[in-house]
Design brief:
The structure holds 3 protein chains of 3 kinds. Chain A is of the alpha+beta class. Chain A contains 5 helices and 5 strands. The mean pLDDT of chain A is 88. Chain B has a single domain, classed as 2-Layer Sandwich (Transcription Regulator spoIIAA), CATH 3.30.750. In chain B, 35% of the residues lie in helices and 37% in strands. In chain B, helix 1 runs parallel beside helix 2. The N and C termini of chain B lie far apart (32 Å). Chain C folds into 2 domains: 90 residues, Methyltransferase, Methionine Synthase (B12-binding Domains), Chain A, domain 1 (Orthogonal Bundle), CATH 1.10.1240.30; 223 residues, Phosphatase 2c, domain 1, CATH 3.60.40. Chain C has a 5-stranded antiparallel beta sheet with strand order 1-12-9-6-7. In chain C, strands 2-3-4-5-8 form a 5-stranded antiparallel beta sheet. Chain C is elongated. The chains are: A alpha+beta, B alpha/beta, C alpha+beta. The interface between B and C is medium-sized, with 20 and 22 residues. Chain A: InterPro entries: HATPase_C_sf, HATPase_dom. Chain A: This is Serine/threonine-protein kinase RsbT. Chain A: It holds the Pfam family HATPase_c. Chain A: Keywords: Kinase, Transferase.
């Protein structure tokens, strides 16, 4: 059975740290290795930072999941920001990193095992990711 | 390679002072400054090339672009104080006959 | 055992041996194993992790502060790992683009292929080398039904793909003109209209078009803002500029072009070029037109094709074999 998700509201930089902490605690509890813990925390960091920088206000949901005898952690980033007009552009390597120094969404995709993004202009963005714990 | 571009407005006119080398790397900076200025209706733009010691064909392309924009917007562009090496590009390409350009003034006042 | 496990135990072994005796051999081993890591796309955080594992197995009583510090190091490596993966991806993408361009360059070569006319009155040498893979210079020979030879040399501003695409347009426009229109000035006038309608406002093309009449030995020519060529007089052994006024193509749709003529005598040589020849830089220094002429002078006694190739080699050498602009040179020698 999946646990009920916990979430963190993101509207100040400090919230990014709280989201990382929550993700790390949960991944530790699930028995993720040190490297995976670090990857999950970094992915959460990127997602939360995106909300903080571009949407001002949003949530990071973190939950433990179990599917077909596999355990993992699901991270969902949801915001009511301006939305992303061209998703394939932001998913392109070298696009987001050229300006800032973040790993960008392609980085999050690499850090996680499953990645799904939906966005509507003027409404917001939902990014749904899963990391399976080996 | 360095370029510096200074824009200043002098009663109804815009004077752009350019210095350095205009080549494939610096031409985009010139384009960014100059095109919006000449695209204003009836604008009067003077580009001072006194301190431009080299310009390649990419730079010339930017000026051609500006010249074409003046025809659409009924504005005017004048390029002054061209050094010999740069002036030569205008004469070879025949642009000295269609564009308003002046070579560098010798011995002070013309 | 999978390769990662083999590498892990090998790493542990090397580490142990180094900690015990600081020998160079284990460092050499470390260098070798790093290469397999890179080959197998092992990320930096995984290597740090490997190190932590090996260390805790070898020395279970390590200081807790030290263990924490290693975990701290691992965290800092995550972003490096991502940057590395991105770099790998972009490198692959670049090589893919490169191969696409090389295919395009072949298409362009086929498209712009031109045959040098063989006539008794004229010996023709030509060389055209792109700075990058695709050529923004264009040259073309046409042999008319009346026996005249048309020679076009053109330079699109800029280089690379945009210039090359533009060149293809010129080629098709030229092919579409009826033969009776093949006078230098009317060719340029027609071409100018095509170019003016079809290019980006910051793009322009320069062209020199010449027509040689073997019967009279006369060369008719017009220039659309093209770098002036040179005429070598066989009697005086001197060079002079082939001056011709005319606006570059693509500025005004109603430009007209003046037609000039030259009487060629036996041994006279006409040199047509693009500004990749006269505007090239040797190191940080520009090569002036006069210096370019000095180089041409050194080889002018050779048969045209050989001269063109030698002159190119000379310029290539001057620029440290790294051409900055497309380079095209045509040499015509009046034989009889």
């Amino acid at each position: 059975m999946n646990s009920s998700p916990s979430y963190i509201n993101i509207n100040k930089e400090w919230d990014i740290v709280a989201a990382r902490q929550l993700a790390r605690d949960m991944s530790k509890k699930l028995g993720a290795g040190t490297v995976d813990q670090a990857r999950i925390a970094t992915a959460v960091s990127e997602l939360a930072r995106n909300i903080y920088l571009y949407a001002i206000d949003g949530k990071i949901y973190i939950e433990a999941i179990e599917k077909m005898e596999r355990r993992g952690i699901r991270i969902v980033a949801e915001d009511n920001g301006p939305g992303i007009p061209d998703i394939s552009l932001v998913m392109e390597d070298g696009y987001s990193t050229s300006g800032g120094l973040g790993a960008g969404l392609p980085g999050v995709k690499r850090l996680m095992d499953e990645f799904n993004i939906t966005s509507e202009e003027g409404k917001g963005t939902i990014i749904n990711t899963i990391k399976w714990v080996r | 390679m360095e370029i510096s571009i200074n824009v200043k407005e002098e009663n109804e006119k815009v004077v752009i002072n350019v210095s350095g080398e205009i080549d494939v790397f610096t031409a985009p900076q010139l384009k960014e400054k100059i095109i919006p200025l000449v695209s204003a209706e009836n604008a009067e733009v003077i580009v001072d090339f006194k301190d431009v010691n080299y310009m390649d064909s990419t730079g010339l392309g930017v000026l051609i672009n500006a010249y074409k924009a003046t025809k659409v917007n009924n504005s005017h562009i004048k390029i002054i104080n061209l050094q010999d090496r740069v002036y030569r590009i205008f004469t070879i390409t025949g642009l000295d006959e269609v564009m308003d350009i002046n070579p560098v003034m010798r011995g002070g006042i013309k | 055992m999978d390769t990662t496990k083999i590498d892990a135990s090998k790493y542990k072994m090397l580490l142990k041996s180094y900690i015990e005796s600081q020998n160079e051999q284990s460092l050499y081993g470390a260098e070798q194993i790093t290469k397999t890591f890179i080959k197998n796309n092992i990320l930096p955080e995984e290597i740090v992790n490997l190190h932590i594992q090996a260390l805790t197995e070898l020395y279970p009583d390590l200081l807790i502060e030290f263990k924490h510090s290693m975990n701290f190091l691992l965290e800092t490596m995550i972003s490096y790992g991502l940057a590395h993966q991105e770099y790998q991806y972009l490198r692959e993408k670049q090589s893919q683009i490169k191969s696409e361009i090389s295919v395009a360059a072949n298409v362009q070569d086929t498209l712009l292929k031109t045959t040098v006319p063989q006539i008794d009155e004229l010996d023709i040498g030509v060389i055209s080398v792109p700075a990058h893979q695709m050529n923004g210079d264009y040259h073309h020979f046409i042999q008319g039904k009346d026996g005249s030879i048309g020679i076009a040399i053109a330079d699109v501003i800029g280089k690379g793909i945009p210039a090359a695409l533009c060149m293809s347009m010129i080629k098709y426009a030229m092919d579409s003109f009826p033969e009776q229109l093949m006078r230098p000035n009317s060719i340029l006038e027609n071409l100018n209209r095509v170019v003016e309608r079809n290019v980006d406002p910051s793009m322009f093309i320069t062209m020199f078009y010449a027509q040689f009449d073997p019967d009279s030995g006369k060369l008719f020519y017009s220039s659309a803002g093209h770098e002036p060529g040179f005429l070598y007089n066989a009697v005086t052994k001197e060079f002079q500029d082939i001056e011709a006024r005319g606006l570059v193509l693509g500025i005004n749709s109603d430009s007209t072009y003046k037609q000039y003529e030259l009487q060629l005598n036996k041994g006279d040589i006409v040199i047509m070029l693009t500004d990749g020849v006269t505007e090239c830089r040797g190191g940080k220094k520009f090569i002036e037109r006069e210096e370019a002429l000095d180089i041409i002078r050194q080889y002018i006694h050779l048969p045209p094709q050989e001269a063109a190739e030698m002159i190119y080699k000379h310029f290539e050498n001057l620029q440290d074999f790294n051409l900055k602009d497309d380079f095209t040179l045509i040499i015509l020698e009046k034989k009889v």
